[in-house]
Amino acid sequence: MALPLLDRFTEMFVTLPHIEMRKQYWLLGILSVWGCSQTANKQSLKVDQQQIIHPFEIRVKNSDYSQGDNWTYVLTEQELKIIYREDVVGRKDTTLLTKALPISKTLKKISQIDFSQLQGVYANSCISDGSRITVQIKKEGYTRSAHIANYYRQEVGQLIGLLNSLTPDKYKIWYNKKALIALEKECKKNQ
Asked: Checking phi first, is residue 36 left (phi over 0); if not, alpha (psi -120 to 50) or beta?
């Protein structure tokens, strides 16, 4: 039967009569500290790997022309910024919120959303007004841009749901899956 490593060292030092007892304990202590530090290093590497969030920049422009609202959300792995865009010539944009973001499960989930198929225009042709969202993504060697008008896309729904969890209530983006899908079905019936 194999003895644990510490028991082996203890057995070895006890059977060596030519080494003083004090030196045996000293050497045993050094080996114990070294062994514990190796275990701690391995555990910290596992934690660090779980906390890595690859760099990204996501811009979500939320326009509701019926309300005259035009907001831009700039999200990175480190920060969220919300800007009110003035469409009137001569007026400046207003930064409403700048928030440093700690590493979190939410940011990790956002960084893992696959936007590789997102491209172009997705629109409900039966609605000429209402929700208009433009999404621009830069991450992991690719850039994507899409305009979504009263239409539901799964990856955009995931993004907006997670983005809204980082945002104060008054700045949340409306992107209701059930309502948008119902509008799409109604449109298809009437065509």
From this structure: alpha
